[in-house]
Design a protein that fits this description.
547 residues, Coagulation Factor XIII, Chain A, domain 1
């Protein structure tokens, strides 16, 4: 390995790779400085990833959102959510930076036969293509970046080892199940197979088609949910405006609305232009160039179709959807050997540098994430923390069902133990309209190895073995099973019993725990002194009087 890195070619490639990462990071800091010193969650990061994946776990991978699956972002969220709540935005931002580095790593693989200078420029195009900042530092918008993985797999040389083949299969599958653009990009692997007929390329084509079918299955629901608009110029005008944004930046907003003749001419120019670019590259057997231009226009068509319900063309003009158009277009121009590419690349660079000021030095409102976490998580059982974009009332929220370790106030302190894991610290009891509500305060003495169920009975004081009322449940205020209880965690658990139909007299309350499920072995019960209790039931000291 050391000898390989010491070869001049490998050293130059490594230096170019590191230079690309450094330059890319500097541009990102210019675009979003607060993402480095004060990272914050954005939009669907809250409800889809923080909240959804916390509550659903791996099952959340099977639930589509916005018309497609988000497999890789959700897997990243599962990992990032293991951080302390105060560090979750930082973990999301760091993961998003690593995603861009992974794309750059694919660019610099030896299987992509391009000069290091071109690869470095392609890496910078990831962050210097005109587009809004919402595509960066935002797990929920990863799908618009992850689609680029398919482009790089489609233009790379065939893998030379079993490990490399497995890597391609895994990357293609995960990326395909994480981006809506697989719906229109799967023909890239048809072209790859026709260019080099092999069993492995046929496998990639089959996987690409399968993941595209999975994603397209949910897309009609996304489009049907959009506000209906009349057919006509709106989608075409939006299509042209968003393509023009790559070269004219925010100047495009001043060119609307477009007259029908301008729309027709613009559409003819786009169709003829991309047709010529793709046809020329294919005729010269410059397959990477043809693939990249084809992917660019296909992504633009899909984005226009998805956004066709937006009547206001200015909305989403520079948004995440056309990032998947701009980057492949820039890549296609960069790998092209033609001299006419330079004016187009210069126009895209000028648009980024001078005509898109909204994407430079953007600092989003500071919603004091750390302060909100400190005031709520670990103090309140349920927390809903507002995140950007700001609205009134808040629409975007990150919710936590937090673990509590502080013992709450209790009118009655009473100690008992069930098995070696569950300890009763005390309780309160309220009586209203013939119903008793006990709020029992439990502490986990150690992490529970399995699920248990709580049983509470009301029995005559002189006949405790003959209960007349009973209720059972699992703890209500934590969404995970008891087996997830951590050592020292406090669970404040209410349970209700009806007194209707009980004859007058004095009654006692008995508490027991059993393994969840039938028949369910009962946990041994002990009082505060460690004395075993009869039949594993603990009697609470409160007397219930039914008149």
């Amino acid at each position: 390995m050391t000898r390989a890195l010491n070869t001049p070619g490998r050293r130059r490639t490594l230096l170019a790779f590191l230079a690309c990462i450094a330059a890319m990071t500097a541009v990102l800091y210019w675009r979003r400085p607060d993402a480095f010193y004060n990272p914050q969650l954005w939009g669907e990061d809250g409800n889809l990833l923080v909240t959804g994946m916390q509550f659903r776990g791996l099952g959340g991978l099977l639930i589509p959102y916005a018309g497609y699956y988000h497999t890789v972002p959700k897997l990243a969220a599962l990992l990032a959510n293991t951080a302390a709540p105060v560090d979750v935005p930082r973990a999301y931002a760091f993961a998003s930076w690593l995603l861009l580095i992974a794309i750059v790593g694919l660019l610099f693989t030896p299987r992509l036969r391009l000069p290091n200078g071109v690869k470095l420029a392609m890496g910078l195009a990831l962050v210097m293509t005109p587009a809004s900042n919402e595509v960066f530092f935002n797990l929920a918008n990863w799908p618009f970046i992850i689609g680029l993985v398919w482009l790089l797999l489609a233009i790379a040389d065939a893998p030379g080892s079993p490990v490399a083949r497995v890597f391609d299969v895994v990357c293609l599958t995960l990326a395909g199940l994480s981006s809506p653009f697989s719906i229109v990009l799967w023909p890239l692997f048809v072209a790859r197979y026709l260019r080099e007929r092999s069993r492995f390329n046929l496998t990639l084509l089959g996987l690409a088609g399968a993941t595209a079918i999975v994603q397209v299955w949910n897309m009609p629901a996304r489009v049907a949910s959009a506000a209906p608009v009349s057919a006509g110029a709106v989608p075409l005008e939006g299509f042209l405006a968003r393509i023009a944004y790559a070269f004219l930046g925010e100047l495009v907003a001043g060119l609307q609305p477009l007259p029908p003749l301008a729309i027709a001419v613009g559409l003819a120019v786009v169709v003829a232009g991309f047709g010529w670019l793709i046809g020329r590259a294919a005729a010269q057997k410059r397959w990477p160039e043809a693939v990249l231009f084809g992917a660019s226009i296909a992504s633009a068509v899909l984005s226009t179709y998805v956004l066709r319900g937006i009547a206001d063309i200015g909305e989403g003009l520079s948004g995440r959807h056309f990032y998947a158009f701009g980057v492949p277009l820039a890549w296609g121009l960069l790998v092209s050997g033609a001299r006419w590419r330079w004016p187009l690349l210069a126009a895209m660079l000028a648009a980024f540098l001078f005509l898109t000021p909204a994407s430079k030095n953007e600092v989003r409102p500071d919603l004091d994430w750390a302060g909100q976490v400190a005031r709520c998580v670990g103090v309140e059982r349920k927390c809903a923390i507002p995140i950007n974009p700001v609205s009134d009332p808040p629409v975007w929220l990150a919710q936590f069902n937090s673990r509590i370790y502080a013992v709450p106030p209790m009118p009655t302190r009473f100690s008992a133990r069930f098995g070696e894991s569950i300890e009763l610290l005390g309780y309160s009891v309220e009586r209203s309209d013939g119903t008793l509500t006990y709020r029992l305060v439990w502490r986990a003495r150690e992490a529970l190895a399995q699920d248990y169920r709580l049983f509470v009975q009301i029995a005559p004081r002189d006949a405790p073995a003959h209960p007349l009322a009973q209720a059972s449940n699992r703890p209500l205020f934590w969404p995970f099973p008891e087996a997830r209880w951590e050592r020292g965690e406090i669970v404040d658990d209410p349970i209700m019993l009806s007194l209707d139909g009980l004859p007058p007299g004095e009654y006692i309350t008995l508490v027991s725990w059993r393994e969840n499920g039938a028949p369910g072995a009962t946990l041994p019960a002990y009082d505060a002194a460690g004395t075993p209790q009869p039949d594993a039931w603990v009697s609470l000291p409160t007397t219930i009087v039914v008149p």
